[in-house]
Predict the structure.
Amino acid sequence: MSYENLAGRTAVVTGAASGIGEATALLLAAQGAKVALIARRAERLEAIADKIRANGGQALAVVADITDDASVEAAAARVHDAYGTVDLVVNNAGVMLVNPVDDGRIDEWQRMIDTNLTGALRVIRAFTGDLVAAAADGRAADLVNISSVASHTPFPNYTVYGATKAAVSFLSQALRTELSPRDVRVTNIEPGMTQTEISTHISTDELREQVDGVLAAIGALAPEELADLVAYATSRPRHMNLRQIIVLPTRMA
Ligand code: NDP
């Protein structure tokens, strides 16, 4: 599939070292966008950026931890030096640490809040000025937030994860009140089970195996299918905002 209007865009994708972020970075670059890839694992980012360049695309690997203010600011400075004003931000980095609330894993709760919510806000702070400026120049300007089906459907053991994602979905909605009048689109995507590394960080073997079992049984979405949605939404004419996408494997729907 080809998407109009992505050639010449300047994108930042967080969590680009694997899964949905990696697939999105590859697809946007294949469509002619310059792509800055942000995550913590340098080798993974370099390998993906090399792959993009080998295919004739433009990519910049930027190692950063979105739980750290200074790291995100330094990343934004590198992106600006290399590529100038960004017009497409995919706020995708996130962690899903499944645990029962009575385990009291405040460490994991804090990590999810700091990555999924405050981390997303740090990225928004770093690039909103770019998006507003790009839109004022008549360019398409997009903020895509990757939330989750868990933001509106409660599941046991996903209590805090779901709360962080509900916050992300609300944030998208609230941000539109500030950004839509300035022609910046905010797209909120709420995926169901997608086959990525996401379950590997779950600390309890039993819960990790449960998630992997469901992923295998349900016919999970592929990260490339999420990338397709990001590319579709951001390549519409600039007056058209596909603002909310809920996408589930059919057997989960
Ligand atoms: P992955 O675990 O494959 O990807 C997560 C990415 O985020 C990795 O590239 C990781 O790279 C990066 N990341 C994690 N923490 C940080 C950090 N502190 N700073 C910078 N980067 C970070 O999982 P997915 O691709 O599935 O997840 C992408 C998004 O999709 C997440 O927000 C997730 O919540 C959401 N989602 C996923 C679903 C699924 O079923 N897979 C369903 C619904 C939503 P590194 O470790 O190198 O930093």
Remarks:
- The first helix runs from residue 19 to 30.
- The beta strands are 10-14, 34-39, 58-63, 88-91, 142-146, 185-191, 244-247.
